[in-house]
Structure formats: structure tokens, C-alpha cells
Amino acid sequence: MYHFDEPTQETGSFIQDYSGYEHHGSLGNNAALGDGAPLGQGLHLPNDVNGPRDYVIAQSIANFPTDAFTISYWIKGTIDSQAVLNTAFSYNAPGKENVLYITHTSSNTRLAIFDNGWGGFPFAVKEDEWQHFAVTWQLTNKTIRMYRNGIAIGSAFNPAGVPLPQNGTMVLGQEQDGLGTGFDKNQDFSGHFDELAIFDRELSELQIKQLYDRSLANLQLGVRICETANCDDQDFQGPYHQTGAFTDIAHPLRADIDTLPHFQLQGFPQGRYLQYRVHFDAVPPFIPGLKRVAIVASGAAPGSWTMLQNKSGQPFVGLSGFQEIKPVGNHRYQISPNGKDWYFYTGSAWQLSTLEVPIADAVAETMVAQTNTAQEVHLAISQFVAQHHAGSFFFRAFLQTADDGAFGSLEGIALAFTPPPADQPVAAFAAPAFTVAEDAKTANLAVTISQATNESVILEIIRSTSTASHTLDYEPPASQAVIPAGKLSAVIPVTIIDDILAESDETITFMLTNVTNGGLGNTMFTTLTIQDNDTHAEDGNLATELANAKAALETLKADSSATTTALEEKIAALEAAQAAASTKVETSSTTALEEKIAVLEAAQAAAAAETTTTAKVEAPSEDDTAQNTEEATPPTIIQVPAQPAAPASGGCSLWMRGESR
């Protein structure tokens, strides 16, 4: 089985046998592989009149079929009417010439088998049209059959019959007068071949039709676009999972069809990952294969943007360089010390971005204003360190679609950075999230370091975002946590306030900032969720129960022998409960809510003051900078692979090297 798809610039004249028997071949003289064949590349044999003889040869074929075979290939070429033979295929064995050969003319094709006769049929090779050729022979029925484009065109019976010899030499494009030798320019073939296959059995007409259809009776495709790498958040659209209007392929894949099977990906959600699944129906013994799938973007608006982001941050205590690796197109950037807060350079300072992604057309202008070129990031990156001291480095790359619809690409970023010292512990929250019940009174947030030291490690803690109110829902923890010398962890207690309000769960996100005697790891943030334990006060059930009890009381009073004392006591208790519930609803709806609003307003003012104080970060003095430079570890150059995040409006597909997503 020869596909003729080898990259000859890498493999030279080598032609691979894909049958598994390793009867590999080689190109001879000016034989070459090129595009334009029915399946990928094909073989071209020029065989110029005044040039050398061109061919493909495979030698010592130990298991060449002896008592039955099917030979098939795609062919087109120029028939030399003056030639003695236009030999497309020949097989000779040691000590025996002309064991088998196939010749073509402008009107017919002939198969000759040594000691087994021959058959000629109306198969005319054409210069400008690919055709599928197949011929079969079987020793037991002594019959030759020939097929054009999957349809039988004739058969011939020959009474003689002997097994064919093995360990011979096969040649494409030449008749052999020896074992792989004795080529004659009056007996060669000038043209093109693709997908040569030799089977050790006679295939049926249906199987040859399947072979012509490239073994495909039906091809079905399922696709899903997802946010998670394992795509467990979406179902396939297509066969077996009919959740959308995705259709199966409507025609077989043949050389007489100009376009390959293709599908429009419509109605899919935006996402980071694309998965596809292919289902083949085929007639045994064929096992169809899929060589390649091309994902082509269409309809993306020129000027639209796609965002890429690195997945894992790089811890740093110094940054000195930022450079693109193999960029194609117009790119702009934001950088972050933690993967949550994104900054752009204004020309004088790094400013927190308000940009939201994915980028809509309406905010594209804002995106340009709040991003920088790679050169601008590079020139200002040392100032970023002065502002943020240390952290884990992340970047966002925004790639713009060109006017002609071509997408930009980026292999990665080369970052020059100074890592935390190897002997310095790295501090982080023990988990990115904690959960606590509202009535638990205390939530314990654990912080850890990578290695114990002889000095205490001090971590500064601030609130990053919050839907809960301090003083009403929780009491702010201390602004510092201390991990004692020789220890690996510490607990930050957060006091939880159990209020009487029925409300949704609330969250507080805490962030580690400066670390004394250590560095920051990747888990710089953690989110604490306070699970509410209150229910809305409703007296509907009490009213129903009270009405039923009063009706029962009247029934009992009609019976002079009945005792009503217990029922009367229950009614009194129900009335008291109903009154208490009404009071609780009123209190919860007015007084407590008014108190919460006042507390929230006070908390907002306090938070604003805290934010202002936190933002005042002094740049190091010249003396401090000189001292830090002397003690710093020399910068290290790394390649941070880019990863695509949610696609821009309009959607796109992007091929990247590095970490694929």
C-alpha cells in the first residue's frame, strides 16, 4: 500500500509501504511526488523521450500474492501511440521475467500473467482526468476481472493456471527485461499515480466500489466546542448526540468531486476547545483512515480581536525583558502579577484595566487604549516590578484579524525575569477556595510555605473582592499572618456573624501580597463562601393549620361528651406563633435591613480609604535599587507558551505551537 504522501524534502527518494509488510520503495531518476492527486500528494513519472527512465521500485517482495490478487491505483497520463508498450506496472521474479505486467493505451488496458494468460478491456487512460483502476485474478476460477471507477468493465477466462513466484521486484512506470533492470524508453509510461494497493485476494465488486469511494459508505462527524479541556460541559452535535442541527456528509469522497467533504460550524457556543469525532461505515475487510482535518475560520470580521493567555504564572522578584516569539499580525498586551488584576502602561505608570473579555466590537477602541505593544511592555516592565515588587507573571495577548480575514498567531513570549531565590520558601493559600456555614462562628483559612526556614515568614493579607459585608457578615481578619520558624503552615481565623436575614450565599476573596522572608506562589487568592442558614419567615402554613384547628374545635363543641381543652391550648399556641412570625417578618424587612444598609455604607467608605492607602506604594530609592541589584539572582530567560482563551466576537480558529488548547 503506497500513498505517495512522503515529504521528500525530508525523506529523499524513500516511499513508504503502509501495508505493514515493509516492502518500501524508492524514486528513480526524475520520478517525483507532488500535489493535485485524489488523496494528498501523488506520483509523477515524466519519462521524457530524451531523458532517463523514471520509475518507482520495490525489491525482494517476500509475500507477493501467489494464487489471487487485486491491484488498484488512481491514474492519469499521456499515452505514447508510437511506443511498443505503455507499461504502468510490472513484476519480475528471480529467474523469471514478465511474471505480471499492466499496460495502457489510448483505448484499452491489458493485464498479462505469465503462464496464466491475459485479458484486455476498454479502459482508456486520460491525460486530464484521474480514474480509478482495479484488476483482480484468482487461480482457482482462472478469471481476470477489471474495473473502472468502481464499476466492472469486463472479465476473461484462461484455462491455464500456475501459482506466481515470490521474492520478486515491482516497478511502476517501466517494463523489466531483468530483475529491476532493462528499462526501455519504448516500453515506459508517462503520467501520474496515486494510492497503489496490492491485495492477496480477489475483492468483490462491492468491495472495489468501496475502494473507489475510498472505503467510505458513509462518514459522520460530531463536533463540540467547550470551555473545559475534557469538554465535559458540552454534548456532541452530530451522530448519536443529536442536540443540534448538525448534518452528516451527503456524498462519498471521490476524485470526480471537486471539493472535499466540509461542514459549517454554526450554532455553537463560544469556547476555548474544539473536539471532533468521526464515524465511518465501511464494508469489511476495509478499515478506513483519516489523515487530516482542516479547521478553517470563515466569516470573522476584519479588525476583530482574539485573546490568548498563559495558563500558569511564573513566580518572579524581578523582570527585565518581554519579547514576542514568532508573532504574525498585530498584537497588543496586558500583564498581571497574579492572573486576576490586569495592567496596561499609560506612558507614565501601570494602571489597572477595566477591560472585559471577550472583546465586543463596541469596546474594541477601549481595548486598544488599555493595552500596549510588546515593545512598550518591554521598555516599562522594570517599572511594573517597582510597583508590584513580586508575584506570578501572567500576560494576555490580543491578536487582531487582518483586513483579508487572516488571523494572527503567536508561539509564545520570552520573559527575562529574576526568580525567587532557590532557598527561599514560597507562600500560598492551601486551597483556592474555602466554605463555611453561617452558624460555624469561625472560618480557618490555611496558608502554607514550600519549605521550613530558620526565620518566621510574614504574609500580608488584603480583601480583593467581596459580596459579604464586614461587621455584619464577618469580622475582617488580621492584616498579617505569621508562619513561625520551622513550621510549614499557619491558620488565619475569620469570625463569621450569624445574622437573621435570609439571603444568598456570600463570598469574600482574600489576596496575599508582600511576603517577608519568602516569595509568592501561584495560589495568591482564595475565596471564602459563607453558606446562609436562614429561611424566609412565612406564616401561610401557620394560618392554614390555625384555620383547621378552629374548624375542628367547632365540631368537638357540638359533641357534649368531647373534651376541647387540648385543642383550645393548641389554637392558643398557634395564634402566638403566628403573631411572632409576623413580628419577625416586619423586623427582618425593615429594622434589620436598614441596619445592614448603614453598615454597608460605612464598610464601603472604609474600603475606599483602605484601597487608597494600599495603592500608595513607594518606588525604591536609588540606593535600595543598587543594593537589590547586587543581591538579585541573574535574570533567567524562559518561554511562556501562549494559550487561547475565549474567542473574540465572530469566533475563530487559531493554530499554535507550544501548549495546545
Could you list some keywords that capture this structure?
single chain, 661 residues, alpha+beta, eight-stranded antiparallel beta sheet, seven-stranded antiparallel beta sheet, 34% strand
Task: Identify the strand order in the major beta sheet.
Answer: 1-2-5-14-7-8-9-10
Mind telling me the C-alpha Rg? 39 Å
Count the beta strands.
Answer: 38
**Helical content (DSSP H or I, runs of 4+):** 10-25%
Shape: elongated
Give the number of helices: 8
**Structural class category:** alpha+beta
The average pLDDT value, as a whole number, equals 75
- Tell me what portion of residues adopts beta-strand conformation: 25-35%
User: How would you sum up the major sheet?
Assistant: 8 strands, antiparallel
Parts with pLDDT < 50 across at least 5 consecutive residues: 240-259, 584-590, 609-661
- The rounded distance between the terminal residues' Cα atoms is 34 Å
List the helices and strands and how they pair.
Elements: H1 8-11, E1 14-15, E2 25-28, E3 32-34, E4 42-45, E5 55-61, E6 68-78, E7 87-93, E8 96-104, E9 109-113, E10 117-121, E11 131-138, E12 143-148, E13 151-157, E14 168-172, E15 190-199, H2 205-212, E16 218-226, E17 237-238, E18 241-242, E19 273-281, E20 305-309, E21 314-316, E22 318-325, E23 331-336, E24 343-345, E25 350-352, H3 364-369, H4 374-388, E26 391-400, E27 412-418, E28 426-429, E29 433-437, E30 442-449, E31 457-466, E32 474-475, E33 480-483, E34 489-496, E35 506-516, E36 519-520, E37 525-531, H5 540-557, H6 565-589, H7 591-615, H8 622-631, E38 636-641
Parallel strand pairs: 28-36, 29-37
Antiparallel strand pairs: 1-2, 2-5, 3-4, 4-15, 5-14, 6-11, 6-15, 7-8, 7-14, 8-9, 9-10, 11-12, 12-13, 16-19, 17-18, 20-26, 21-26, 22-27, 23-26, 24-25, 27-38, 28-30, 30-34, 31-33, 31-35, 32-34, 35-37
Helix pairs in contact: 5-6, 6-7
